[in-house]
Amino acid sequence: MNKAGIVSYGSYIPRYRIRIEEIAKIWDEDPNELRSQLQVASKSVLGPDEDVATMAVESARNAINRWKGDPQKIGAIYVGSESHPYAVKPTATIVAAAIDAEKELTAADLEFACKAGTAGMQMCLGLVKSNMISYGLAIGADDSQGRPRDPLEYTAGAGSSAFLIGTERVVAEIEGTYSVTSDMPDFWRREGAIFPSHGVRFTGKPAYFQHTVDASKGLLEELGTKPSDYDFATFHQPNTKFPLTVAKMLGFSSEQVEVSLICKDIGNAYSASSMLGLAQILNHANAGDKIFMTSYGSGAGSDAFSFEVTDEIEEVKTYPYNVDHYIQNSEFIDYGLYARYKGLLR
Amino acid sequence: MEPPKIWREKRERYLAIGIQCQDCKSKSFPKTSFCTKCSSSNITEYRLATSGKLLNFTKVTSTSKEMNSYAPFFVGIIELDDGIKVTGQIVDCKFEDLQDEMRVRMVFRVLARNGEEGLIRYGFKFTPE
Amino acid sequence: MSNHRVNIIGYGMTKFGEFYEENSSSLASKALMDSINNSVIEKNEIQAAFFGSFVSSSNSQSSIGVNCINECNMSIPVSRIEAGTASGAAAFHQAYLSLLSGLYDCVAVVGTEKLSDYVRNESIERILGATIDSHWEFEMGATLTSLYAILTKAHMKEFKTTLEQLASVPVKNHKNGVHNPNAQFRREISINRFLNAKRISDPIGRFDPATFCDGSSSVILASSDFIEKHTNLETTIPVLGAGQATDNLALHHRTSLTKLLATEYASKNAFKMADLTHSDINVAEVHDSFPIGEILAIEDIGFFAKGEGGKATENGETEINSNITINPGGGLKARGDPFGATGIAQIVEIVEQLSGRAKERQVDNKNYGLTQNVFGTGAMVYVNIFGESEVKR
């Protein structure tokens, strides 16, 4: 059997940004203190005519255009998000129609806080490896909400990342994946509620760190690899400090993680966060490079992945609409416009 | 926003699919039952070019309820690289950035939302290339 | 030729404006009774009525003509004709054809609209969006105003038409409207007010568009046979030419953005039917819903060479008693624009002018007059030509 893995990938980050200082000013907080705590300078903000479906479509189209393959061959589409535009009516069907992948395929929306996108990658991998489908598209996309004045307001960003999983022209083989899951009340949003609630410091040690470490160690053990075997590593980025800290806890260096740190510019892209980090690494990777990724979703769980980059990467690396393109194509807005775009004005 | 209409126009709005006449080869948008040039019914779907140039543009400061929350926004006539002209919005830019003949490419956006509980109409808009 | 077979023998209209206490039917009834009384014929001599209305369901009633006819205690066939902002002229055209066919000898045409019930930024833009390509212009984000902005820019670019030239259109029309007792706005407005206004759809300023409002207008049409039998008629203005033409609905499908082809074709047809040319016309009411509308109209009808309309207006060549008098009644701009009522109000103005009853705004030369009513951005245009009297022909 051919190698199974990433065949193509595409990302999308909305154009608008708000600086930490601009939010801090409204609430009379110290921006320097916040910046050093979070190591985030600004976060991405969705335009008024965008939502998770439009971002998911843009990232999916970037994956298709990078791949140059036939979208009719896609047998599964999963969109992981905690901010789907409809409570009932899938985002995945909108994506299927907008990339011309209708109609012989399976599709579903997933929700697992910040890790539903990587859960979709695992589902696609399973379907591909069992020969049920040729290609599966897994998308993580979020327009995350932070209650005004809540610490989340400084980092809750937006973005989308799509990964096409298959066995033909694989650019990064998935060598293994390992998950941990436990019931954990660290972060939640009840049906119909606009803003999420969270356990503040409880979201750290027993939640983010414990799950990320458990899944990562589990995979390293299963594959018999060690952190120094990897050229790059990426972890979920609720801020920039957490992935650097967890890397250190696991024995990865900050250099291995550095490339993937997009959070400092765009904040926490939730379901897209670790996947955008992975996409950014692929843009800088060469054949033979090994990549380690572990996502984290509150509630809680982590999916760890180990990849090895193939020669095919050269074909797709130069696609222009990549993470860097979207990070650079930015426009800073003030809190007034932010409030309008976020729908905070009623 | 009527569900059948949103469903019917899906391929045109999401994918910018028009028609090509198999007899006289002319292309047009939106979808029609007959070739807009020779009236032949021997037509197939045709997907428009996804980039082009901005021919004319202006600003919209007020419009109907389901679109008004996005105003002000910019609208123009775009000539796609296959010669077909369409009307569309130009997003992710400032009005001062817009120029006649500037290059634009198609993006997927929300066209309208029917209140808090109704359907969302998605479709193509343009952004500077 | 059957040129002289249709004549206007009576006319009437309500004042245009915001009439919150009135409904659509009561406005229509007032205009209809006004025109019947004006014509000095008996109510029961009218054999049919044609209603021009764009948004007839404004008081939850479709086919508004039935209400009106009931209210006027009449019992005749009625039709409601819809052609968006040109519904008035469209109804007039059908009434005209009904007389030409010989089916009727005397019919009424009523244009009516009740727009003050609608709210801006909610429903009115949606209604106007139905006069452009509603699926592929309006729903993609364009509005009627924005498409007129594109037409304005195209003219400015190709012919160096200036904002001052454009603003001279509403300045003149407001000046004329001062003397029109039925106009919504009866005061002069300075050019700086137009030039300094915020651009609502660049280069269109806040005060440039005509305002939508309430109002009704009516004319009574009769055949030459009917006129011969009624020697006491005070008004007998013959319809000499009637032209109608259609163009692509969407601007992006048009070959030119600096002319309205439908105006050109409709006026050619009307001139041919009347055996006249543009130079024979003394006075015209044209569709100035936006300043560029009047400039395009006076060029496309042929009063001025292409590209010269702005300059000519700025030079005063379209003022009352200049080369060609354009919009002596104040146009849509000063009169207000109750869509379906506008096309008939234009005809009422020309009939008053040609019968010498326009008082302070009366033109001296009054052999021939013309009206031009436009649907949306010009996808349909109606042009009518009228003469001073049958005798003169």
List the helices and strands and how they pair.
The complex is a heterotrimer of chains A (346), B (129) and C (393).
Chain A lengths: L4 E8 L3 E4 H8 L3 H8 L3 E4 L6 H16 L6 E7 L10 H8 L7 E5 L5 H14 L5 E9 L14 E9 L5 E10 L5 E2 L8 E2 L5 H20 L8 E4 L5 H10 L3 H5 L4 H4 L6 H12 L5 E5 L6 E9 L3 H5 L5 H6 L2 E2 L2 H7 L5
Parallel strand pairs in A: 2-14, 4-5, 4-6, 11-12
Antiparallel strand pairs in A: 1-7, 1-8, 2-3, 6-7, 8-13, 9-10, 12-13
Helix pairs in contact in A: 1-2, 3-4, 6-7
Chain B lengths: L2 H6 L1 H6 L1 E5 L5 E2 L14 E5 L3 E10 L4 H4 L4 E8 L4 E6 L12 E11 L6 E9 L1
Chain C lengths: L5 E8 L10 H16 L8 E5 L11 H8 L6 E4 L5 H14 L5 E8 L10 H6 L4 H5 L5 H16 L3 H15 L13 H5 L3 E3 L2 E2 L9 E9 H6 L7 E10 L14 H14 L8 E3 L5 H10 L8 H6 L10 E2 L4 H5 L3 H16 L13 E8 L4 E8 L6
Parallel strand pairs in C: 2-3, 2-4, 9-10, 9-11
Antiparallel strand pairs in C: 1-7, 1-8, 4-7, 5-6, 8-12, 11-12
Helix pairs in contact in C: 1-2, 3-14, 7-11
Approximate strand percentage of chain C: 15-25%
What is the mean predicted local confidence, pLDDT of chain C? 94
Q: Name the average pLDDT of chain B.
A: 96
CATH architecture field of the largest domain in chain C: 3-Layer(aba) Sandwich
SS-based class of chain B: mainly beta
Strand order of the largest sheet of chain B: 6-5-4-7-8
Q: Tell me the series of helices and strands of chain C, N- to C-terminal.
A: EHEHEHEHHHHHEEEHEHEHHEHHEE
Q: Can you count the beta strands of chain B?
A: 8
Walk me through this protein's architecture.
The complex is a heterotrimer of chains A (346), B (129) and C (393). Chain A is an alpha/beta fold. Chain A has helices at residues 20-27, 31-38, 52-67, 91-98, 116-129, 204-223, 241-250, 254-258, 263-266, 273-284, 313-317, 323-328, 335-341, and strands at residues 5-12, 16-19, 42-45, 74-80, 106-110, 135-143, 158-166, 172-181, 187-188, 197-198, 232-235, 290-294, 301-309, 331-332. Chain A folds into two domains: 5-171 and 330-341, Thiolase/Chalcone synthase (Peroxisomal Thiolase, Chain A, domain 1, 3-Layer(aba) Sandwich); 175-313, Peroxisomal Thiolase, Chain A, domain 1. In chain A, strand 4, helix 4 (91-98) and strand 5 (106-110) form a beta-alpha-beta unit. Chain A is globular. The model of chain A has no long low-confidence stretch (mean pLDDT 97). Chain B is mainly beta and 129 residues long. Chain B has a single domain (3-16, 49-128), classed as OB fold (Dihydrolipoamide Acetyltransferase, E2P) (Beta Barrel), CATH 2.40.50. Helix content of chain B is 12%, strand content 43%. The B-C interface holds B 9, 29-30, 56-65, 67-68, 73, 75-77, 85-89, 95, 100, 111-112, 121, 123, 125 and C 120-126, 129, 133, 135-137, 139-143, 145-146, 149-150, 153-154, 157, 199-204, 250-253, 257.
